[in-house]
Design a protein that fits this description.
Blueprint: E1 9-14, H1 18-27, E2 33-39, E3 55-57, E4 70-73, H2 77-90, E5 93-96, H3 105-118, E6 121-123, H4 132-139, E7 143-153, H5 162-165, E8 175-181, H6 182-188, H7 194-202, E9 209-216, E10 222-230, E11 233-241, E12 243-244, E13 247-251, H8 252-266
Parallel strand pairs: 1-2, 1-4, 2-3, 4-5, 5-6, 7-9
Antiparallel strand pairs: 7-10, 8-9, 10-11, 12-13
Helix pairs in contact: 1-8, 2-3, 4-7, 6-7
Length: 271
């Protein structure tokens, strides 16, 4: 089949919040990509900005009839368990953004078994990060330590356990609101610490990756610094990401990495 005859890459998005809507808008009209459906909690309620011709679905079993190439989850931790099993049967690739769901070992083991049985692949996108290919490559030679530092504007921690530790609006300087394993971070801060699960899956795992979270009233960007050392040498990566306008807890880079992931699936030259 020639390039001109190639079928479009058929995609379904789970979620039409700040991240999902950004991904959908950026992919709309892209050559070789077709956003077939968006999965939501209530398909009867209209969603602003939905590309013309895109279906709204609210039942996992509806995925099976769509002839999909990929399903992307971008709707929060509870949505993973609700949609994952159907997604693995409906498409050969299922990308999970809300990786905090993977702190449940039994759930992850079940998901992996189902993916293997279906011949499907579970993909963990970089989220707000980069360099996960390098961290994963370094892990092949053995890692000794991985630290992941997360710094966000103080008010970006609203609605999290950080509110119980301090008055976020009254902070005058940086305050450490969490220090512990990636597993504990993702369990306590599921909307803020998906990145900690991503770096831990690439490197030392959920229980050996050290996470430090900081609320900083002077910060204007969401910052991630990953420091890793081992037989390969040492790496120190810092990412300072602008938050999405509609959700200060999420970085724009999370949506951009999802778009890039899809583009690489259809590009003749993928980087």
């Amino acid at each position: 089949m020639s390039g001109s005859e190639r079928h479009p890459f058929r995609l379904a998005l789970i979620g039409w919040g700040a991240i999902g809507a950004t991904v959908g808008r950026m992919l709309a009209g892209r050559p070789g990509v077709q956003l077939v459906a968006v999965a939501v909690s209530d398909a009867a309620r209209p969603r602003a900005g939905l590309p013309e011709g895109t279906l709204l679905i609210d039942r996992p079993e509806a995925l099976a009839a769509l002839s999909l190439d990929m399903v992307i989850e971008a709707a929060g931790r509870p949505s993973v368990a609700h949609w994952a099993r159907a997604a693995l049967l409906a498409a050969p690739a299922f990308a999970v953004s809300s990786t905090s769901a993977f702190v449940d070992d039994a759930f992850l083991a079940d998901l992996l078994a189902r993916a293997e049985a279906a011949g499907a692949q579970i993909i963990v996108p970089p989220g707000a990060l980069g360099g996960m290919d390098a961290l994963g490559a370094a892990a092949l030679m053995g890692l000794e330590r991985v630290e992941h530092f997360v710094t966000k504007p103080a008010l970006a921690w609203a609605g999290t356990p950080a509110e119980q530790a301090c008055d976020l609006a009254a902070l005058t300087g940086p305050l450490e609101v969490f220090r512990g394993s990636a597993r504990a971070a993702a369990d306590a801060y599921p909307k803020n610490a998906n990145v900690a699960v991503i770096s831990s899956l690439a490197g030392l795992g959920l229980d050996r990756t050290e996470v430090v979270m900081v609320a900083d009233p002077a910060a204007t960007l969401n910052s991630h610094r990953i420091v890793a050392s081992g037989a390969f040498g040492r790496m120190d990566m810092t990412f300072e990401n602008a938050p999405l306008p509609d959700n200060p807890k999420s970085s724009a880079m999370t949506a951009l990495n999802l778009v890039r992931m899809v583009e690489n699936r259809v590009a003749v030259l993928a980087v």
